[in-house]
Amino acid sequence: LHFQGGGFCISQADWFMYYAVYTKLARLARAIVASVYLRSELEMPQTPFLTLDMVDKFLSLGLPIGSTKDGPITCPMGPNAPPLSGLDLPPILYCVAEKDLFIDRNMEFYEALKKAGKDVELFVSHNMTHSFYLNKMAVDHDPETKAQTNKLFEGIVEFIRKH
Q1: What does the pLDDT average to over 120-132?
Q2: Which residues span the domain enclosing 120?
């Protein structure tokens, strides 16, 4: 299951970029891939560049009214969330991009999962940014992005086969 957060405030789960990536992944892994469709409530931003301010705005738009980015929905390792140790979770492949704006929070959650004794494997896409594998032009024309995307898919397929 792939759950996308704030990004769907400016895109939709049925856009071609998601379809192309997830159908390829489904074929490679021989698995069902679900991309959750969420209602969009934001006009397209004026700038094409993702900034921390935009990240915070997208995050706030993806949360229930009255929630904050430090609440249990977006900060499941925080003091307002139930203890991770009490959750019965399946094995987790936790994929991060080394140059993602979310890397610090992503790694904080990964460490919390480990500390809670969860079966979690870390997969790092080196020198890549957030959702790099969705950038079809880069995947098709940049050798590094293509190689990292292939490694990501291989890692996901290997994890699925192992579990």
Answers
A1: 95
A2: 2-162
